[in-house]
TrEMBL record:
Pfam families in UniProt: 2-oxoacid_dh, Biotin_lipoyl, E3_binding
Biological process according to GO: pyruvate decarboxylation to acetyl-CoA
PANTHER family associated with the record: DIHYDROLIPOAMIDE ACETYL/SUCCINYL-TRANSFERASE-RELATED, DIHYDROLIPOYLLYSINE-RESIDUE ACETYLTRANSFERASE COMPONENT 5 OF PYRUVATE DEHYDROGENASE COMPLEX, CHLOROPLASTIC
Gene Ontology MF term list: dihydrolipoyllysine-residue acetyltransferase activity
Name of this chain's protein: Dihydrolipoamide acetyltransferase component of pyruvate dehydrogenase complex
Keyword Transferase: yes
Organism: Parasynechococcus marenigrum (strain WH8102)
């Protein structure tokens, strides 16, 4: 009998374990080579796991909701339908006591947190939705776990929802739109989207926590989700890095004026800041470097990662690749796409794990100044605060009101020294204060 194991894959270089979100195939189903068998939640994304051979799914060793370390066997595939029964018997007899929850009733025990919102389903009056065909696989509607949970809470029939995800998969925002709710977006380094979502939240979700949100109510204890757990591990790893911090005050009058000119063309302040940082990094490769076991590594690309706080908890850093060489308008389009796909956890690992420098902008919240924690594997991160009108004294003794923002660089002192950080910030300030229009050239 030829039995092939389905292993928990390593979907990113930092992934140590994964959570099984959903089995797209059930025991007995025929599986084709390259066909998606299940969905796994890695540290920062939901990704399909494909079969490497043709055959039949014989056994599911880890039900949906289970977490397994990378490399662990989570299912079995056999070559012929006649081998299914033998494989299932072998899997049952070989299963350790800890895996006893694998039979059919187990998912209820493994997914104990999931039924929590159930009481809110009682008054589930179907909301009006647009009639359209939903993607179906093996008789089941294909939707993300968060979309299913949200649909259950809102009383939306998933079979009537059109999906906007990969291969037509229904995402949470599709359910929100079908149910007439404002579409939630991650809080990013922009001033508008998050403000709209925040203002709509009290009326739309006042009775209970927002759907899909991992934050608890007063008195609750909420387990870390997979994304938050990954952030925790990264932050603990950062404690071993000897960091220093250096700040700089930058006048933004010209940048603000230029931003108004290019905003109608789809260019956001985030794109402008990322472009300015990238261009400056190209002239200061030491600040783009990182420490490795072999020494100091100087990346061939300038990839700017930008911190995005997700609505269901945790943090992700979509990456603008080759930001120093990418056209400003093209980069703005890329950023818009990255934010959209980060919302539905559809970023590929290389789209959030290849940053060589990180940008964190809390200016949208009116923060005067803050220090950022250095992400592992990079040499520096820049914290950008709000731009505010400030009374400034000129060199000739004159007094004027100018808009200024505080930026603080956190750097790994093993590869970047104080003089390196100071020179980088000085050149960044000179670019923003005197030549912001050059960012569009």
């Amino acid at each position: 009998m030829a039995t092939h194991d389905i292993f928990m894959p390593a979907l990113s270089s930092t992934m140590t374990e994964g959570k099984i979100v959903e089995w797209l195939k059930q025991p007995g189903d025929k599986v084709g080579r390259g066909e998606s068998v299940l969905v796994v939640e890695s540290d920062k994304a939901d990704m399909d796991v494909e079969s490497f051979q043709d055959g039949y799914l014989a056994a599911v060793l880890m039900p949906a909701g289970s977490t397994a370390p990378v490399g662990e066997t989570i299912g079995l595939i056999v070559e012929t339908e006649a081998e299914i029964a033998d494989a299932q018997a072998k899997a049952t007899s070989a299963a350790p006591a800890a895996s006893a929850p694998a039979p059919t009733p187990a998912p209820a025990a493994v997914q104990a947190p999931a039924p929590t919102p159930a009481p809110t389903q009682a008054p589930a009056a179907p909301a009006p939705v647009a009639a359209s065909a939903a993607p179906v696989a093996n008789g089941r509607v294909v939707a993300s776990p968060r979309a299913k949970k949200l649909a259950s809470q809102m009383g939306v029939d998933l079979s009537t929802v059109r999906g906007s995800g990969p291969h037509g998969r229904i995402q949470a925002e599709d359910v929100e739109q079908a149910g007439g709710q404002p579409i939630s977006v991650p809080r990013v380094a922009e001033g508008t989207a998050a403000a709209v979502a925040a203002s709509a939240a009290p009326s739309a979700a006042a009775p209970s926590a927002p759907a899909g949100n991992s934050f608890g109510r007063p008195g609750d204890t909420v387990a870390f989700n997979t994304l938050q757990g990954a952030v925790n591990r990264n932050m603990e790893a950062s404690l071993a890095v000897p960091c220093f911090r250096v700040g700089y005050t930058i006048t933004t009058d010209k940048l603000d004026a230029f931003s108004k000119l290019v905003k109608p063309k789809g260019v956001t302040m985030t794109a402008l800041l990322a472009k300015a940082v990238a261009v400056t990094l190209a002239r200061h490769p030491q600040v783009n470097a990182a420490t490795t076991a072999a020494g100091m590594t100087y990346p061939a690309e300038v990839n700017v990662a930008i911190a995005v706080a997700m609505e269901d908890g945790g943090l992700i850093t979509p990456v603008l690749r080759n930001a120093d060489r990418t056209d400003l308008y093209e980069m703005s389009r890329q950023w818009k796409d990255l934010v959209k796909r980060s919302r539905s956890k559809q970023l590929q690992p290389e789209e959030y794990s290849t940053g060589t420098f990180t940008l964190s902008n809390l200016g949208m919240f009116g923060v005067d100044r803050f220090d950022a924690i250095l992400p592992p594997g990079t040499g520096a991160i820049l914290a950008v605060a709000a731009s505010r009108p400030t009374v400034v004294a000129g060199k000739d003794g004159s007094i004027a009101v100018k808009r200024q923002m505080q930026v603080n660089l956190t750097a790994d002192h093993r590869v970047i020294y104080g003089a390196d950080g100071a020179a980088f910030l000085k050149d960044l300030a000179e670019l923003i204060e005197h030549r912001p229009e050059s960012l569009a050239l």
